[in-house]
Amino acid sequence: MYGRDPWGGPLEIAADSATDDDRSRNLQDYDRAALSRPLDETQQSWLLGPGEQKKKKYVDLGCIIVSRKIFVWTVGTIIAAGLLAGFITLIVKTVPRHHHRPPPPDNYTLALNKGLMFFNAQRSGKLPKHNNVSWRGNSGLNDGESQSSNLFKDLTGGFYDAGDAIKFNFPQSFAMTMLSWSVIEYSAKYEAAGELNHVKEIIKWGTDYFLKTFNHTADTIDRIVAQVGKGDTANGSTEPNDHYCWTRPEDIDYERPVTECHSCSDLAAEMAAALASASIVFKDNKAYSQKLVHGARTLFKFSRDQRGRYSVGTEAANFYNSTSYWDEYLWGATWLYYATGNTTYLQLATTPGLAKHAGAFWGGPYYGVLSWENKLAGTQVLLSRLRLLLSPGYPYEEILGTFHNQTSLFMCSFLPYYNSFNRTKGGMIQLNHGGPQPLQYVVNAAFLATLFSDYMKASDTPGWYCGPHFYSADVLREFAETQMNYILGKNPRKMSYVVGYGNHYPKHVHHRGASIPKNKVKYNCKGGWKWRDTKKPNPNTIVGAMVAGPDKNDGFRDVRSNYNYTEPTLAGNAGLVAALVALSGDTSVGIDKNTMFSAVPPMFPTAPPPPAPWRP
């Protein structure tokens, strides 16, 4: 084939008949002079093409096949990491460290630990091995056996009331209610103090006994036990009993009669409050909690059906006289509402007529003073909690708002800026207006004040008004701290009124078990009088007992014979423990908002009725 050569002459284009192999061999003949110099690897690869590849090696792991190189690297990395971790661990364990110890317990926690021990010293019945009061033993094992009725043959257990060996169910049930209330609100603080299990054991010791004092399996009853033991020494009686004799409970050999009551609304409603509040404490033990709730319902029904005051015509009127049962109706109904969520009880607790009978709408010298005899102030605080944290609305708002306002008013009366209550020169508020045994009222007020302060904080309420003046919620806590500090030793006598707390405390406590040595000698009824009358300190220290307290001039006589100064009580110590746990520990830890409402169903306020139609 010929073509035109642009440079002149013909151009011959040969047909492309050569194969690729021929062209490849012909390339070797071209420019051999240029190929005579050495080539680098890249140039050789261009000319020679890819060389023979090395064969990869693999490791068969049974479930998977991986490259040997990857396998070696992986195993090596794991071994290296293990060696490094071991080296670091070795360094950490061998290098000396500075342990950051938790801060020491505050004074309120220390006093709380001791205050609970008082209840161990007051136990009746067969004591548990871990009771931890060396000078106490089993006692009252025949309580109830002398009873003519077959219903109450076993009345062992419970707590002795004070320095004697009588079991008064009225103040005892109030004490258990107060302890349960404090656990419901401040279980985290009890836990932090290492006392949660202890206080729950104490409460259960009381509620187990209460369940023996009436037919708790029945829905309707006609009687309950009011008292075990006797203490009447009127008209110079020399009959051996729990007040005439000075005997260790373990050595009692005289008869201990049982007092029943058939019309005792106050006692039954208070016992219902004790069982209902305890049922919330033990809500995780469903069977026991339900047993307590059933018992509380039965008792409260009895209190409503059989109207009357338990102390009428009995010797209890000389020691724990009840002047009304209306406050117990409010108290018991409120606790039953919290325990069951049944609005029937809330409707009763918020009935204006009931509140009026209980004295909610007129003041008086003891307005706002919580005690074993009057629970109105406690109920007002409990129902203020409901309004602050749940706000149920209509139809409860009006009366709950009233209770809330009343609570705010008596909280104002606790402040030093107001003259509702006098104070001693040392700073103790005189809630019983200079009467004897003042500390039991002081500790209850300290508990309510701290609790109401925590309620306000939990509801993001900064404070409250006393007339035109606004006060921070912290002011109530400061009041409580001032009063509790007085009790723990910050007073003119520099004396702690809690036995065993501090270095200076009462040594002649009015208490039979603490004043008689445990020396294997059984002292009969009058044989123990020498220990009652001796001026020597008690041989046994009743740790945690809060004595009755000083007089209106801050004076105190540490003498065993004067119970108005030196006798401790269950009700007083329950208030002490409640106030101490409320103030103890981290101040940023407030109340448990939800446990109290664990049985309360969601509240959807009912719409108020429409207004009356307009008429021209």
UniProtKB/TrEMBL annotation:
Residues 108-580 form the Glycoside hydrolase family domain. The active site is at 510, 558, 567. SUPFAM superfamilies: Six-hairpin glycosidases (SSF48208). It catalyses: Endohydrolysis of (1->4)-beta-D-glucosidic linkages in cellulose, lichenin and cereal beta-D-glucans. InterPro entries: 6-hairpin_glycosidase_sf (IPR008928), 6hp_glycosidase-like_sf (IPR012341), Glyco_hydro_9 (IPR001701), Glyco_hydro_9_Asp/Glu_AS (IPR033126), Glyco_hydro_9_His_AS (IPR018221). It comes from the Eukaryota. Keywords: Carbohydrate metabolism, Cellulose degradation, Glycosidase, Hydrolase, Membrane, Polysaccharide degradation, Transmembrane, Transmembrane helix. Residues 1-26 are annotated as: Disordered. It is an enzyme of class 3 (hydrolase). The chain crosses the membrane at residues 70-92. Its EC number is 3.2.1.4. It holds the Pfam family Glyco_hydro_9. PANTHER family: ENDO-1,4-BETA-GLUCANASE. Belongs to the glycosyl hydrolase 9 (cellulase E) family. This is Endoglucanase. It comes from Penstemon davidsonii. The lineage of its organism: Eukaryota, Viridiplantae, Streptophyta, Embryophyta, Tracheophyta.
